[in-house]
Amino acid sequence: MLIHNADVAIVFNQIADLLEIKGDNPFRIRAYRNAARTLNALAFSVQTMVAEKSDLTELPGIGIDLAGKISEIVTTGTCALREQLHRQLPPSIHELLTVPGLGPKRVKALYQQRNIQTLDQLFNSARNGQIRNIPGFGIRSEQRILEAIRTQQSKKKRYRLDLAESVASALLRYLQALPDVKKIEIAGSFRRRQETVGDLDIVISSSRPSLVIQQFIQFEDVTQILAQGTTRASVVLRQGMQVDLRVVASVSFGAALYYFTGSKAHNIAVRVLAQKRGLKMNEYGVFSGTQRIAAETELAVFQAIGLPYIEPELRENRGEIAAAQAGKLPQLIQLADLTGDLHAHTKASDGRNSLREMAMEAKKRGLSYLAITDHSSSLTIAHGLDAEGLTRQMDEIDQLNAELGIKLLKGCEVEINEDGSLDLPDNILERLEIVVGAVHSKFGLSRERQTKRILRAMDHPCFTLLAHPSGRLILEREPYDVDMHQIILHARQRGCFLELNAQPSRLDLTDTHCMMAKNEGVLISVNSDAHSIFDFDDLRFGIAQARRGWLEKKDVLNTLPIKQLLSAISRP
After folding, report:
1. What gap in Å lies between CA 54 and CA 56, rounded to an integer?
2. Are residues 167 and 273 in the same domain?
3. What number of CA atoms fall less than 13 Å from residue 502's CA on the CB side?
4. Residue that terminates a domain, selected from 325, 345, 372
5. Residues 343 and 467 in one domain
């Protein structure tokens, strides 16, 4: 059985959820969540590690007990502890956790106070006004639950980009190894690097399409065959994701890849442009009458209709065609353009590696500077640092800067209090080289109050960078209500910066807000928010989001060399 890292991480998160509903030890719960995050960040397979008898305890945060459970899940596909916890609680209670805004603590309250065990019971209770009087809820909470369930029921299931990538990588390796596959690409929203993916669209060139189709449907993760023809097939994988495969001749590969990559709006706009030139476009090529004039590569397809190549991330019909016609397409940022990372954590707060280990890993990845930004003390769940702890860390940074060959910046992810004040005294803030302000509480404030809160924080003379500006968690928590345009304008006025948090669960700023910031001349910092040495891998997701937001190297703060960066973030 093929077991992905994401499969093991899902089991660990489910165990953590069930333990939290039961009211178990918070440190035990946190250990499972940290392990799940480590597994999702790994660039290599734990199934392979188990097969090769590698020491799993060498992974950050993985002790003997968790290593044993990883081996158990990889070997059996399940975990006895999870099954035991399911038996101790109503079998469907975990479904309540799929409702945005309902964490384990609130699910526990719903179960204990109203014996709510299913989504139907939750919906009916909310509709009948039976939730508002439960401590911690209210009329607004009740309405949000109703809206969330209705929205959830109306939407097709989607997957975060990192989870889709994990599933896709195994399928790609399988297909690439087939002797009859000449070229292969994943198209669709995955190739455009959208933050969530509904299904996977795969394009293959082969001279034996029927054989490729037959081998595709035999992939071990396939649980259902939806359609099967001589050149196309659709299946459902064990994880629930649909995969659509199209096999074409080599001469049409570029046309098919282009056709199945762009959004519907982009494709329609380009076809209209082709029609104005007397041409026809489809997945087999660009045609003048019955003559095919371009098809083998995407570049040839674009050239045939009089356009320069448009990068996949831009193919959303948001002005890219007009920009291409005017010769004003952006030179999109690349991962190699980053010279540093301005948001990272160590085990001094909620990270899982030491200061030295984080610094050496950043240096190994070619970064010339790294801001250490452990949490401030009010974020108790993250074991934040008080003034004394932060002072000790700054002294350690001074020592390491003298020996490591990478510049460590003294920073802190400082909590923005409800009134907009910062969670550290000014005499400590003034010693920091970078102050990353963040909202981790009071998400339910009104739009006016939430905006005012953040604007006041940005007005502090030590404030440098606003972390994960909307507070969203993709497919888990909606963004808090805030006037992002006003925040962007204020950042320009104040001379501070906004973060694009590269964690695939955040990708915050959104692509459209990146475009807005670019238009207003506000620099964005693409940061990993790394909590372990493996999390630097997430920078690639941040860069993909930046590219979707039309960002170029000049639009990103942490592409600057260290001297220019220090000048940019220096206080007046």
Report:
1. 6
2. yes
3. 28
4. 325
5. yes
